[in-house]
Each structure stands twice: as C-alpha cells, then as structure tokens.
Amino acid sequence: MAHFTLTGCRLLEFDAGAQQAATFDIEVADGFIADVRPADTRAPGGDVIDARNCLVTPGLINGHHHSHEHFHKGRYDNLPLELWMNYMRPPEPLPLTARDVYLRTMVGAIEAIRSGTTTLMDDLNVSPILRPDHVEAVFQAYEDIGIRSLVGISLFDKPFYRAMPFVDEEISGELQAKLAAGKSTPPSEVLAFARELATRRHPRENRVGYIVAPSAPQRCSDEFLLQTRALADEFDLPAMIHVHETRLQAVTAQEFYGKTMIAHLSDLGFLNANTSLIHAVWLTPDDIGLLANAGASVQHNPTSNLKLGSGVAPVRALLDAGVNVSLGTDGCGSTETLNMLRTVNMAALVNKLRAEDRARWVGAREAWQAGTTGGAKAIGQAGRLGCIAKGYSADLAVYDLNSIAFTPLNNALHQLVFAADCSAVRDIYVAGEAVLRDGKFTQIDEASLIAEIADRHGTLSPLIAESENKVDEIRAAYERICARCDALPVPEQTLPAKIG
C-alpha cells in the first residue's frame, strides 16, 4: 500500500483567507489518513507530493446515478419523468454485450472522477432479463478505473407500467397484453441474485460493493418491499429507494395507498437509519417528521429534478428537522452529466428560491457538507468517508489554486462551490491510491476508451432510435394518465416544489 505525504496544502476546514493562509501536511499510509498536521512541523513520511498552491478536500460522494442511461446522453429535453423514463426502460431491451455495458459504465466513472468524486452509487437496471455478466461488467469497470462504488440492481416485482394510476382505463387490453408479453426474469430470482451480491460484494470488504436498491414503492408489492428491507437489515447494508420525485407520484400515492408514500413506508416498518430516499421532492411536514424520527436520509438530486421539471426538494425544512441530506446527479439520460461540482453548485443556488428570509437559504457550506459528510452518512460510511482527519479513508481531491476559479483567492470554499470546474481538479486519491495524477488517469487509457465508446455508440444509435419509436406507441396513453393526475390535488400540506 502507498505511503506518502501531501505537503503544504490548504484545507477547507482551516481556510483563513488568501492573505493569512494556513498550510498543512497530510500523511497517508495503508489507504488511510495517518496524520494531518501544520506544514513543516516534522519530516514527511513516505513519498513527498508537493501540494503547495493546492486545496485538498474530501472526495465528493455521488449518492445516486444510473449507469444504464449513459448511451442516451443528450437525447431528450422538455419531458417530465413519467414520459421520459420509458425511453430508458423500453419494452424490448437493447442487444448489448458485456463489453457495451463496461463501456457505458466508464462514461460516468470518468466524468465522476474528473469532477472531484471518489465515491459513486449506481442504481443499475437489470430488467427485463437479468444478465449476471452485465452486472459483473459494471463492477469490473469501477474496479479498473479505481473509484469507490456501491452498485445496486433495481428491485421490483410489479410490471413497470403498473406504477401509475388509471392504467386499466387508459391503456387498452391489447397494449397491456403486448407490454406483458415479453420475457422477464422472475423477481424472486433477481432478489436471490441480490443476496448473492450482498454476500460476495459487501462494502465493508470491497471498494466496489453492493447496495440494496428497491426501485420505488409504487413498483413493489408490500411483501416484496419487506423482503428487500429484510435483505438490507440482515447484511447491514444501506437501502435506497425513489420516493415522491414528482407531483404525479404524490397523486399516485393517494390513489394507491390513501396516504403519502413516506407514510406508507413508515407504516410498513421500512424506514430506518440505513434508508436513503432518492429525490423526496413532494413532501409534507408530517413526511419530514417521519424521516427525522426514523433517522433516514434524503438524496437530493437538484440538476435532475430541474431538467425533468420535477421541482425543488425542501432542503431547508429537511435540515431544520435534522434529516441528513446527501447529493446525487441522477443518470446521464436525464441530466447529461455526473459532474458533482455542478451538483453541489446547484444545491447551493436553487434552494435560495424557496425562502424570502435569506437566513434560511442553503449556502455553500451546507451544500458542500451534503456532498461529503452527508453522503458518507447516507451510505453507512460516517466516520470513514467525507472528512480529512486521522483514521479516515484517504479518499481525497486535490484542486489547483492557480486555476482561474481560485484567482484571485478570497474564500476557498465559496470559490470551490460557485466557480470551480473539472479543469481545477489535479489529483484524485481513492483509499490512498492515485487514480488521477496531474489531470491524467493512472489505471485506464482514457483516450482509447472514449474512442471505443464513440465507435460502439455509432453502432447502437440506430437501435436506440428504433426502441424509441416503439416506446412512442404507448406515449399517448401515458400523456392521458399524466393529464388526469395533473387535475387531481396533492395533500393540502404538501410543501411547494414548483414556482407558478
């Protein structure tokens, strides 16, 4: 294992301004931070890495994305979630090879690292047919590039089109039969495969590990949800689930359960401190109270929620209630990017729209904490990830303070959150191993991978277009369902998520 010292760097925790800058040495040994001390107080241990004129931070933690969307980057705009998502999960899957899956996974992993990310949560669609070699290709991509990752295979037992109300009234029997006709792996087999991953790929022993990922309450029977809960509890694994991302889902909850989905999950006993609710945009104060009492986390995905017109999560209300908030990008099919610097920036900007009282605005520090310590807590890694302190994993990002984002330097945190981009990222370390050094990947050939991805996309693009044409066959029915849901009220106490 590597033993080195980053010498003479700046740290956010001790940012004293440009004129009176304190500098520090960070010693790393056996994958962990061995010491953090004022610069030049004793001889560096191991190799010396000059970090003068650099800002060193904990690596960002991307709490949510979908690697299966990466070949769809840039194809859609001005579509709400309920119309867009069918293009990501067409009735007939694309004929991908394991190598295709490996390459599409690398699309996100490369950008994640280049934007200061050291940990990535991947909610991977394996429907309708589970291909273990495809799942292994995802794990292998993350192993090869060097990033820390938790991979969940999306778990649900209801037909995907059954996740919305009014299906029997708006989708013809003939079309329903067509949607149900395709072959699919039984949910019990997918859950059994998830159990095998939990046994073999536990994140306590693996840098690239497994996380339990039930898709959403409306896509799961109550019995199946409780089976996923039991799996997570048995192996002491985090569970992440999409909840109340859109207004339509808030309406769906009333139609399906007569209560919010958070209340339904609470009644089932699903919520606990090892649970992350992805999105959680359309919430009531009672929902927030339930989350706080359970110790659950919310994975805030501001750029995706804006791109799909879903709304803005009530982050200030969540924080005030003591709910842990983490950040995620969501997938490239919806928001085009896994750039976590942009996500932190957006979290610190968009939530200023929610309050007239500027004392209640979400600022740079809270947004940065959501992307680091909040992310660590959400995935059960508090005390190990998200901080620069002795005993923590050496998952570090090194930013060049000579880059234009930090010139002139007045406040390193503010300029990191509001100005920095990928060009400022110099080095990335994961568990003490350099995966990016002087802006170049150390464990992969980035240029050849990008060329191969472009070549395969040229072949796959016509097939993607063909699948989109087939999805268009059901779009009119979905439009009608959306219109009906738009005309129905959400609970009166629901906090406003959209303007106008």
What does this structure look like?
With 500 residues, the chain is an alpha/beta fold. It is 40% helix and 19% strand. The protein has helices at residues 81-88, 98-114, 132-145, 167-170, 173-181, 187-200, 222-235, 247-257, 261-268, 285-294, 302-307, 315-320, 332-335, 340-350, 364-371, 373-378, 412-418, 446-486; strands spanning 3-11, 24-29, 32-38, 47-50, 54-58, 60-65, 117-124, 148-155, 208-210, 213-214, 239-243, 275-279, 297-300, 324-327, 396-400, 425-430, 433-437, 440-441. The strands form 3 sheets. Strands 1, 2, 3, 4, 5, 15, 16, 17 and 18 form a 9-stranded mixed beta sheet that branches. Strands 6, 7, 8, 9 and 10 form a 5-stranded parallel beta sheet that branches. A 4-stranded parallel beta sheet has the order 11-12-13-14. Helix 3 (132-145) links the parallel strand 7 (117-124) and strand 8. Helix 1 (81-88) crosses helix 18 and helix 2 (98-114) packs parallel to helix 3 (132-145). The longest helix has 41 residues, at 446-486. The N and C termini lie far apart (56 Å).
Overall SS class: alpha/beta
Strand content: 15-25%
Alpha-carbon distance between the two ends? 56 Å
Please count the beta strands (DSSP E, at least 2 residues each): 18
Number of helices: 18
Shape type: globular
Task: Report the uncertain regions.
Answer: none
Biggest sheet, open or closed, and with what strands and sense? Answer: 9 strands, mixed
Mean pLDDT: 95
Radius of gyration: 22 Å
Q: Determine the fraction of residues in helical runs and give it as a percent range.
A: 25-40%
